[in-house]
Amino acid sequence: MLIREEGKGEYFKVDPDGFRAFVRENKPRATVSKLMSEREAVEKFVRDGDYLAYDCNYFQRGPSSLMREVIRQRKKRLWVCGKFTYVACALLVEAGCADRVDIGFIGFGPWISRAVREGRCKFFEYSNAIMTLRLKAGAMGVPFLPARSFGATSGFEYSGCKLVTDPYTDQPILLVPALNPDVSLIHVHQADEYGNARVFGTGIAHQECALASKRVILSTEEIISTDEIRRDPGRNSIPHFVVDAVVHAPFGAYPGTVQGYYASDPEGIIEAMGAMFRGDFRDYLQKHVYSIGSHAECLEKLVGAQKLADVRRRETIREGYGI
Amino acid sequence: MSTPAVNFSEREFVIVQVSRLLEAKCIYWVGGGGEPLASVLLAKRTRVPELQYLTEDGVVAPEALVPFDPLMTMVASRANYRALQWGTMNYAADIAHLGYVDYGILNTLQVDRYGNINSTVVGKYEGGEGRRFGGPGGADSIAALAWRTILITDQHKRKFVEKVDFISSPGFVDGPGARQKRGLAAGGGPWRVYSPWAMFGYGQDCQLMLQAVAPYVTVDQVLDEMSFKPKMAKKIAPLEPPTEEELLILRTQIDVGGQVTDRGRWIELKDGKYRFAE
Predict the structure, then answer these.
(1) Taking CB atoms and an 8 Å limit, are B183 and A163 in contact across chains?
(2) Among A83, A148, A174, whose Cβ lies nearest the Cβ of B145?
(3) Which among A116, A147, A203 is the nearest to B127, CB-wise?
C-alpha cells in the first residue's frame, strides 16, 4: 500500500498478536468474583508507564473515584487517552502521574503550555472520534482502521496516522493506528461480581475501551446478580471475561453525573474547572485526593449525605435507565 | 406575531440567525454546547419542533429538557431526554461517514479565508509557546463528514485571519479539491460563517465571501475587524433582527442562566435604528 504522508507523532505500539497472546495467557475466562476495593484494583492493575484509557470523563459517567485513586497511589509516566475530557488530563498531568497525552479534546488553560515548556508532558494530536476509532480497531484485534476525516488537519502531522492510497478505490484515505491500552477505567451503572456490565444512556466508547484494553477496571454504581444480568441480556455491553476488577463505587462519578442515577454537583464541577483555568491544582488535589483515604471517605467526609441526597433528587429523569 | 426586538446581546443575535436556517428535513450534528446547541434548541422551540440532531455521544434526535446544569450538554439525562436512540461516539461518526448528516454546526476560535477551523493553539504550536486550547474534540469529524458546515465565531481581527495558526478541523484547506487529496469524502465543507456582525458564504473558489451584515454595523466596520479582505457578494444584504418572541424563548427556556448569551455587546433599538448601547 502506498504511503502518501505520515504523521510524526509517537504512537503507542500496535501489536495485535501480542494482545492475543496476552489474552491467552492472562485473561480470566472462568466466572470468578473480581470484587475488590479501588485501592486493590489500582495497585494490581495500573502500573507505572502504562497506557491508560478511561470512558467518558470526570464530569459525565466517568470513573472519577478511580482516577482519584490512581493519583492517590502516585502512579508515574502514564500515557493517557485524552478524548472527551474536561479536567481528567489536567489532574493526571499536574499530579505528576502522566507524561504523555493523546488529545481528542482536553480542558485547557495555562497548564498545557507550561507542561510542554517544562518538558513534563508530551501531547500528540488526534480528535475525539479518531481516538474512539483507534480503540475500535484495538477492540477488533486489527492493526488499523480507515477514516474519512482528520487527514486535512495540522493535527495529522503530530499524530501516528498515515495517509495512504486505498487499494480498492485508488483514492487517498487516512489510517489510524489501533489502540490497545494497558489498562482502562470504566464506570458503569450495573455489574455483577464477575464483570458483566451495563451502561444506560449514551456513552463515548465503553465497549470499545473494555474490549481493547489488556486490563479493565470497572467501577459500578450497583452490584446486581448474574440472574438479573441474564434476565435482559440485550442491555449488557461488557462481558465478564474482559474485566479484571469490579469495584463497587456508588457515586463513583462524583462530582459528575450518572444519567438516570444522579445529577452532577455544579459546585464540585466549578471547583475543578476553576483549578484548571487558574492552572493550580495543589489545593484541589490536597483536598480531594491526598487528604482522603478512599472514595467512601470522600463521600462521607467531603461530600456528605445531604449533597448526595440532593444530586439524587435533582436527577428527575428515569425513562431508559433501568430503574 | 413577530415583533422586532428592542434590546438584545450580540450572542443572542447570532444564535437567532443560525436557528432560522434550520429545517425539519435535515439532520444536524451539533458541537457540544454553546451557541450551536442553543441555535438548535431555539429552532426546536420556535419553528421546527421535529428538528433532528446528533451530538458526539451518539444521541439521535433527543427532545432535550432545558436548561442544563453547567457543562451537562452530553452524556447527561436532560440533554439526551426522549431521544430516538442512544449510541456512542463511533456510532455518531458512522452516521456522518454514511452521508446522513446534512449540516454541522460549530464554534471556532479562529477561521480563515478557506474556512479552516482552529481550536488548538493561537500562536506557535511547537515548544508550548502559543496559547493552547482544547483541540478539535468532535469538530474535525463534523467538519469533515457533514455535507455543509455552519461556523460561529466573534467578529475580531484575531478571529478572522488569512491562515489559521493550526488547522484543528478542516475547511477547504487551501482551495478546491484539497479535501479529497487529504482523504476526505467528496463534497462537504464550510457553507456559512456567522459572527454577531455578519454572515459569510463561500463561492466556487472556496473563499470566504461577505454576504450580509447586522443592522447595527456597516460593511466597513466588519472589514475593519478582519485580518484579510474577503470576497464580496454583489449585494450585501441586511440581517434581520431577532424578534421578541425568539428572545423570550431563548432567555426563559434555553439559556436561563445566561451561560451562553451573557457575553458581547448590547444592542438597542433607538429612534427606529439599531445601535450599540452606551
Answers:
(1) yes
(2) A148
(3) A116
| Whether A125 contacts A9, CB under 8 Å | yes
- Identify whether A211 is part of a domain: yes
Contact between B137 and A105 using a beta-carbon 8 Å cutoff? yes
Which amino acid makes up residue A240?
A: H
B90, A55 in Cβ contact below 8 A?
A: no
With a pLDDT cut of 90, the percent of chain B lying above it is: 93
* Residue A296 counted as domain residue: yes
* Interface list for B 34-73 with A (CB within 8 A): 56-59, 65, 69-72
| Strand ranges, E, within B50-168 | 52-54, 59-60, 85-86, 103-107, 110-112, 117-118, 121-122, 131-132, 148-152, 160-161
Are A241 and A224 a contacting pair, CB within 8 Å?
A: no
Instruction: With H, G, I as helix, E, B as strand and everything else as coil, classify residue A165.
Output: strand
Give the CATH number for residue B262: 3.40.1080.10
Q: Is residue A174 part of a domain?
A: yes
Shortest CA gap B221–chain A (Å):
31
What is the DSSP secondary structure assignment for residue A45, as one 8-state letter? H
The CATH code of the domain that includes A80 is 3.40.1080.10
pLDDT tens-digit series, residues B60-85: 999 999 999 999 999 999 999 999 99
Could you tell me which chain A residue has the CA closest to the CA of B81?
A317
The x, y and z cell numbers of residue B132, run together, are: 493552547
Give domain status of residue B2, yes or no.
no
Total domains in chain A come to: 1
Give ipTM to 2 decimals.
0.97
Return the residue in A128, A161, A261 with the most chain B beta carbons within 10 A, the one to mutate for interface testing: A128
Name the nearest CA neighbour of A60 among B70, B243, B30, B81: B70
Q: Is residue A108 part of a domain?
A: yes
B44, exposed or middle or buried, with CB in 10 Å at 0-12, 13-18, 19+? Answer: buried
Measure CA A260 to chain center: 20
Distance from CA of A148 to the nearest CA of B (A): 5
Cα angle: A322, vertex A247, A284; to 5 degrees: 100
All residue ranges of chain A with pLDDT < 70 are 323
Structural domain for A267, as ranges: 3-22+34-191+198-222+237-314
First-last CA distance in chain B? 29
CB contact under 8 A, A148 and B180: no
Q: Give the residue numbers spanning the domain of B257.
A: 7-276
Q: What total number of domains does chain B contain?
A: 1
Instruction: Give contacts of B141 with chain A, Cβ < 8 Å.
Output: 127-130, 149-150
How close is the nearest chain A Cα to the Cα of B158, in Å? 19
CB contact under 8 A, B182 and A152: yes
Q: How far is it, in rounded angstroms, from Cα B66 to Cα A147?
A: 34
| Residues A170-228: tens digit of each pLDDT | 999 999 999 999 999 999 999 999 999 999 999 999 999 999 999 999 999 999 999 99
Task: Write down the pLDDT at residue B247.
Answer: 97
**CB-CB contact of B235 with B211 (8 Å):** no
Are B75 and B38 contacting, i.e. CB atoms less than 8 angstroms apart? no
